Amino acid sequence: MLRSIRAFWHDQRGVAMLFAAIMVPVLVGFALLAIDMSRANTLHNDLQKGVDALALAAAAELDGKSDSITRANRAIDNLLTNGTKFSTSGDHTLVRADLTITYLTGIPASDNIALSAAGVDANSVNWASADPTAVEFAEVTVNPSGVANGAGAFASIFPASFVGSNDTMDLQPQAVAGFSQSICETVPIFMCNPFETTTPATNKTIQQAFAAGLTYSREYRILKVDSNPGPGNFGLIDNSLTSLRDAIAIGTAGTCYQRDALTTKTGVTLGQVNAGLNVRFDIYSSSLKSQDKNWQYRPASNVRKGAGKTSNCNKFVAATDGSAMGLPPGNNYDSSTGMTDSTWDRSGYWALNHNGAAYPSIPSSSHPTSTAQPASRYDVYKYEISHNLVDDKSPNPSKESGTPACFKGTTPTADPDRRLLNMAIVDCIADQSKINGHTQLKPDGYASVFINSPIEKQDNSKDDEDSSANEKPISLEIVDVDGPLGNNTLDKALRNEAQLYR
What we know:
With 502 residues, the protein is α+β, with helices and mostly antiparallel strands. It has nine helices and 17 strands. It has helices spanning 2-10, 15-59, 68-80, 206-211, 244-250, 270-278, 346-353, 377-386, 432-437, and strands at 85-87, 92-93, 99-104, 137-142, 153-155, 168-170, 174-183, 189-192, 220-224, 233-236, 257-258, 262-263, 420-426, 440-441, 445-451, 474-481, 494-500. The strands form five sheets. Strands 8-10-9-16-15-13 form a six-stranded mixed β-barrel. Strands 3, 4, 7, 11 and 17 form a five-stranded antiparallel beta sheet that branches. Helix 2 packs antiparallel against helix 3 (68-80) and helix 5 (244-250) runs parallel beside helix 6 (270-278). The protein is elongated and about 145 Å long.
C-alpha cells in the first residue's frame, strides 16, 4: 500500500496539464488587459486630438470682440459636424453634449495645478468668465460616460466584473488653448495715452476715448519721454532693425510685437526719428539722400506741408510769408495732456491751397460714429487725393502743391498711405517705473496715427539728424485704434495666433 502511495506521489505524468489549466486563464487575462490598454490608449489619443482641435478652433475666435464667444461656439459646432466615431460604447459619435466648454480669462502659472472642467483650479481660483471681451482661453473637457452615451466611455474586453471591478471606464481628456495677437507693420515708437489720469472716474483707455469721439480731429503734440513720462510724451520700443531711422522711414520695426507685451528702449535718438518720419513728406536728410529712388523710402502721394520757397529736398523750412500752409495746428492746446481741441482753420487752409475756393462739405469718414462732424485733417487730406486736388498750387512765391518732387522712383500710390503709422499707446503714468526701468509692460492698445506735418528743429539751420538742436513736437492725429471699439482698419496689421497650453 505504502509503495503504491509513494509511486503515485512521485508520478509526474499530466502535471503540464495542471499548470496549463491554471496559467492559460492568467495568460489570456494578461493578453486581454494588454489589448484593452492598447485600445484605451488609442481611444484616449483620438479623443485628445479631437478636443485639442476643438479648443484651438474656439480659441482662434477669442479676439476680445463682443461676439467672440458666439463665434467660438459656432467654430466648435462646425467641427462636430464631422462624424468621427470615438467610442465602442454604442458606436458613439462625438456630440456637443459629450463636452464641457468653458471660457477662461487666464490659467494657473504652473501645469502642475489641476484645472477642473468648470475652470476652477486646485487652489480654488475661478478662471471662468462669460465676458466675451475678457476671455482669452478655451477649455474643452470630455464628460463622464453618463452624458450622451459617453464619448469617453471605454468598454473593456477583460471581464473586470469577475474580480469586483467595472467592465467600463471613463476617459476624460482635456485641452486648453489660448488666443494671442501680434501686431506687425508698426514703427518702434510708443505714445503716452493722452486720456490717462490718476482718477479712475476720468481715466479712459484709448479705445474708450476713440469710441466716444474724443480723439477725433484733435492735434496731438508729443515730445520725447523724460524721467517723468506722461500724456504728451513718446518713446521707443525694442526692435530687430539696426537702424531706428530706417525702421521709421520704412514703417516697420522688423518684428511683430505681442499685443499685450512690449519692452521700451533706452536712448531716444530724436535725429533719427525726425529723418525717418520726414521721408514720408518727400524730405531726405543727408544720410538718406541715397534712398530717394528706393520704393521702401517713398513719400506719401500727398505731401502738402506749408513749405517756403527756400525749402529743398533735404530740409523743410516753413513758409512765413503766407504763400503756403500745411494742415493747421489745433486750437486751445493743453500742455498737461499734449493735445488741442478739435477746432482748426479749415477754411483758411482750403482757400490758400485751392485757388481761393470755399471750403467744401467734407464728410468725417474716419469718425467712429458720424460722417456729419467737421472733418479732421486726415479726412481733408484724403478728400484732396480722391478729388484730384493734390496738384493745386498755393500762391507765389511758394507755389506749393502736394505732389512729391524729390523722390525719383516710381510714382507713390495712395494706398497704403505713407502718412499713416501704427503706434503703440502706453499708460505712461501707471507704467512709469517700467518705462524708466525698460522692463516689459502691457500697452493700452495700438493706434493708427496721421502725421500732420514734418518734424522741425528749434534751430532749423541744423541737419535733421543733428542732436545738438532741440526738436519741436511731432504733430499727429489719431485715425483709428485696435480692438472692438475701433473702425477695424488696423486688422490687416494684426496676426492672430492660437496655441495649446494644456
